[in-house]
Amino acid sequence: MEDIEDVLGPAGFSDGGAPPGLRLPLSIVAVKPKRRSSRLAQTQPQPDARIPGTQTIYVKTFGCSHNQSDSEYMSGQLSAFGYAITEEPEGADLWLINTCTVKNPSQSAMTTLISKCKSANKPLVVAGCVPQGSRDLKELEGISIIGVQQIDRVVEVVEETLKGHEVRLLSRKTLPSLDLPKVRKNKFIEILPINVGCLGACTYCKTKHARGHLGSYTIESLVNRVKIVVSEGVREIWLSSEDTGAYGRDIGTNLPNLLNAIVAELPADRSTMLRIGMTNPPFILEHLNEIASVLRHPCVYTFLHVPVQSGSDAVLKAMNREYTVSEFRMVVDTLCELVPGMQIATDIICGFPGETDEDFAQTVSLVKEYQLPQVHISQFYPRPGTPAARMKKVPSIEVKKRSRELTSVFEAFSPYEGLKGRVERIWITEIATDGVHLVGHTKGYIQVLVIAPDSMLGTSADAKITSVGRWSVFGEVIEGSVAVKEAAHKQNCAEVQEENGQNHVEEATCCTNTCDSCACSGAESTAQQCSPSSVAPTNRGDAARQETPQPTLVRRNVEGTVKTSEVDTATPTAKDQQPNVVTRRALNIDRILWGGLAVSFATTVAVLVLLTYKISRTPSY
Questions:
Q1: Cβ(316)–Cβ(309) under 8 Å?
Q2: Contact 570, 406 (CB under 8 A)
Q3: 473 - beta bridge partners?
Q4: Buried (b) or exposed (e) across 19-41, using 16+ Cβ within 10 A?
Q5: In percent, how much of the chain has pLDDT > 90?
Q6: Other CB atoms within 10 A of residue 535 CB
Q7: Are 146 and 3 in contact (CB under 8 A)?
Q8: 20 to 30 A Cα–Cα from 37, which one of 88, 125, 214, 280?
Q9: How far apart are CA 515 and CA 11, in angstroms?
Q10: How far is CA 579 from CA 462, 472, 480, 541, in A?
Q11: What element of type H or E holds 79?
Q12: Residues 20, 24, 53: CA angle, nearest 5 degrees
């Protein structure tokens, strides 16, 4: 095995110096969200394996949004260097797998993919938390690996791997630059890591082994990044971190200071929204009032992920979570009181070592009491090298039983009662996996599926909720709302650009912020009390069991994480108005269907007439 410093030669590289061609001020690379998987691997000419930058790279990501951001940065550097990025593994010249070490299933999926890659005889690079936290893992033998703080050197690792070398680059150093080239999975969504690592020492957590101690980016660098992505047409900014609440404690600042600096740069017309990432209770307690003030800002989603993990203080102590159930309650109660329409998600681990029946009953009671909009339930998985892996385990049968029981508790709630007929502002950023609907989110981050032209991607609009189910909300965009005007203007700009021969990337970023009036003066939301009638939990693992209403053109249920929450109160006149809705695509397809039926009917009648005529002319004997 050869180390990359030995392969590349110059000592300057080992000192953190920049290899030629990797530190140039390359522009950001963006991609258009696709309805189907990319086919780049099939359309690229056959590369010469001896020429770097001519091959096709398959990138696969497991884990959290921070991992997704790392993959986007690695893809951006590879793309800027000339490599083609694909989602089709068969035609790729090299596989790049970005891994997650939080749970056994994600690592098992990585192991399976590695086996497939070896069977296909493809060069392989493994990145992310698994190699960083478990560098001596048997499955990683003979494979090039790159650490979480070395993603800015991915081009070097890929080049050497394609030459047949095994490269291992895991040393920790300064944080990767936020200005590296980036290929976003969705050009309208920027995942912005604000820090790496954390200050905690949870007994079950393997991520700490990989991401390490807290390391925060400066406020100046983060604000500069926000300015850049807003100018590029990004419509949602997700702040990502292992613990958002701990931000800045290593550099003499705090999360409220960062949030206030960021929201000051967001457009006043609410064309770009901010979503605050996961925060543990200990580091948000002292800033609750300041955080609530930011969450009330018109350009910030009133949504926060605060993991509780257990409703028992005894279990929380065994987990070394550094807070009590009462402190979690204080966070939830304070934010729900101070922030209208506040939505809080949480996590629960079932069957942690030492969890008794009474401990579990306290967890069930907590879930029933608050009925939070999202509850991500998982069974305990002992991770190698963690203190919890050495604790006495709860029998697996009991763990599964508790997981099923807690799942049935939150599935019994009705999260969307009363939403039908309401008018809500939504921000539209994605195409649903059914290929028919666009995906929007309300201020409280409820997922709303609408039928609208693709030109409305990256806009906001008023939508009337037309039907609800256990897991989904469907709406219709109101014609004449701000988003319709924005979309029409964007389409006009696109036509002008096409005439002038300009490219699509420019088109996506030049026709923004066209709203003349500020949308911040919309109707106020009613205060959210986190009651059963207003919110309900969801489980990512059960998202496939969606009970979907059947509006026109719903071919199959939309997959993915379910977003549920209380919606904002509509304006006083919304009940009385009869809004016109954008249903042009539905009407066009309906006309085609009816036309096809009419043609089929006419053909059948003609055939019957012809047969009758021939039978009548046939002489009888």
A1: yes
A2: no
A3: 448, 468
A4: eeebeeebebbbbebeeeeeebb
A5: 45
A6: 28
A7: no
A8: 125
A9: 54
A10: 10, 22, 9, 37
A11: helix 65-81
A12: 60
Nearest partner of 458 among 33, 110, 16, judged by Cα: 33
Q: Which amino acid is at 433?
A: T
Burial class (CB in 10 A: 0-12, 13-18, 19+), 263: middle
Instruction: Looking at 216-356, list the stretches that DSSP marks H as alpha helix, in order from N- to C-terminal side.
Output: 219-231, 255-263, 288-295, 313-319, 325-338
Q: Which of 587, 567, 377 is nearest to 468 (CA)?
A: 567
Predicted model pTM = 0.70
Q: Per-residue DSSP letters for 338-368? A: HSBT-EEEEEEEES-TT--HHHHHHHHHHHH
The DSSP annotation for 355-414 comes to: --HHHHHHHHHHHHHH--SEEEEEE--PPTTSGGGGSPPPPHHHHHHHHHHHHHHHHTS-
**β-pair type (168-169, 144-146):** parallel
Please say whether the beta carbons of 301 and 444 come within 8 A: yes
Rounded CA-CA distance 453/299 in Å is 24
The residue written with tokens 């991992």 in the block is 67
CB-based burial label for 213 (10 Å; 0-12, 13-18, 19+): exposed
Q: Residues 534-573: pLDDT tens digits?
A: 433 334 333 333 333 333 333 333 333 333 333 343 334 4
Helical packing angle, 325-338 and 288-295, nearest 10° = 40
Q: Residue 377: name the closest of 359, 391, 363, 397 by CA.
A: 363
Cα torsion through 293, 298, 303, 304, rounded to 10:
-40
Please name which of 224, 232, 222, 309 lies closest in space to residue 257, comparing C-alpha atoms: 222
- In tens, the pLDDT along 134-192 reads 777 788 888 898 888 888 889 999 999 998 888 887 887 788 889 999 999 999 999 99
- DSSP β-bridge partners for residue 65: none
The Cα-based distances of 555 to 145, 439, 496, 558, 601 in angstroms read 42, 15, 35, 9, 24
Report which of 472, 374, 376 is spatially closest to residue 416, judged by C-alpha positions. Answer: 472
488-525 burial, b at 16+ Cβ within 10 Å, e below that, comes to ebbbebbeebeeeeeeebebbeebbebbeeebeebeeb
Angstrom distance (rounded) from CA 324 to CA 311: 9
Please state, in angstroms and rounded to a whole number, the distance separating the CA atoms of residues 256 and 103. 31
For residue 507, pLDDT over 60 is answered with no
Range with the poorest average pLDDT among 145-149, 361-365, 485-489: 485-489
Terminus-to-terminus CA distance in the chain, angstroms?
93
**321: Cα within 13 Å, side-chain hemisphere:** 26
Sign of the C-alpha dihedral, residues 44, 48, 53, 59? positive
* Stronger pLDDT, 135 or 584, i.e. the higher one: 135
Backbone dihedral angles phi then psi of residue 384, each to the nearest 5 degrees: -55, 135
Burial of 264 (0-12, 13-18, 19+ CB in 10 A): exposed
CA distance 296 to 259: 12
Helix (H) or strand (E) holding 485: helix 482-500
